Amino acid sequence: MAEFVRRVPEGDNRERLVCGDCGHIAYENPKIVVGSVILDNGAVLMCRRAIEPRRGFWTLPAGYLELGETLEEGAAREAWEEAQATVALDGILGVFNISRIGQVQIIFRGRFAEEQEPHFAAGPESLEVALFPWEGIPWTEIAFASVNWALQAWQRTGTGPLGRPAGNPDSDPRGTHRIGRAGPAA
Amino acid sequence: MAEFVRRVPEGDNRERLVCGDCGHIAYENPKIVVGSVILDNGAVLMCRRAIEPRRGFWTLPAGYLELGETLEEGAAREAWEEAQATVALDGILGVFNISRIGQVQIIFRGRFAEEQEPHFAAGPESLEVALFPWEGIPWTEIAFASVNWALQAWQRTGTGPLGRPAGNPDSDPRGTHRIGRAGPAA
Q1: Cis omega (within 30 of 0) on the bond before B9?
Q2: What is the largest distance, in Å, between two alpha-carbon atoms of chain A?
Q3: pLDDT tens across A156-181, in order?
Q4: Continuous segment of H or E residues that includes residue B82
Q5: Interface ipTM
Q6: A163 contacts in B (CB within 8 Å)?
Q7: Do A21 and B2 touch (CB under 8 A)?
Q8: Which residue of B28, B92, B99 is in closest CB contact with A69?
Q9: Contact A19, A93 (CB under 8 A)
Q10: What is the secondary structure of A55-84 as a DSSP string?
């Protein structure tokens, strides 16, 4: 296999992975994670992770946006894949920078598409899926700091009109802390 | 060079580029473009592109988010690189899906950091940089449809409080039209 070397391509100003044979530049850029806070009668849909990282911990249905998808399509797909839920999205609840790992997370607020008969179940990447009222959320078993941030954004807006998206908290403005190092979920 | 083949890796549900030698999966995901509508006394900062695509057409300072950056840092860097402007950002003005080319564009609203002495100049990727009042914008020479969308979002919010980010227009909800095919800038 041809070797990739790190160098600054002509006309660029930062190092890239460049193929030593053909000069192909393998750009590495941040990835987009899309997810949702799905609400039903004051409770939020959460998934217990069946996969690493953070297997066994609770998260929101979320994952990498795929080529060809809109943000909304990706968030709805993840709700289906991880929680077997068909959802309707209201709009963007939060936009979070996780610069430590090259991620931007865009989290929607939404509800079950069939509000009279909400259906959900564990998809292949979830051990279990459940609806939690605020006071029942398993706060000590949250998978990622950004899950806390999105839940707090929900607490602030409730089901009222969405305004400016929530952003990173002042305690971690660039998304550089690991959850274990960031102190208790606050 | 080892050959990459397109196949569905175990545990996945879509085709990926997989190295035939070592099994490495080269994930391809959408990229994030960050940019800004920089305002000064009712005029907006625009750049005439010195590079393809759309060389010679007018755009907003914007470009790919880089690893390790926050969205805000990326948008400010692009304003510096393309317009030699040091900017302060107010918040997110628009979030646009360009699914045709695997892009999500996050456009901020901002102003010159030194409002009393705004400075700008053409960076290496710009032929010229200028401030345009709304009625002076070169509407027939706009580089990309999303530039129109961001400018229209500015027209709606002015310099007032930012609320929900603007999204794609109803005429192109997924960002699949080419500017030449989307009809006149509307």
Answers
A1: no
A2: 60
A3: 999 999 999 999 999 999 999 987 54
A4: helix B71-83
A5: 0.90
A6: 163-164
A7: no
A8: B99
A9: no
A10: TTSEE-SEEEPPTT--HHHHHHHHHHHHH-
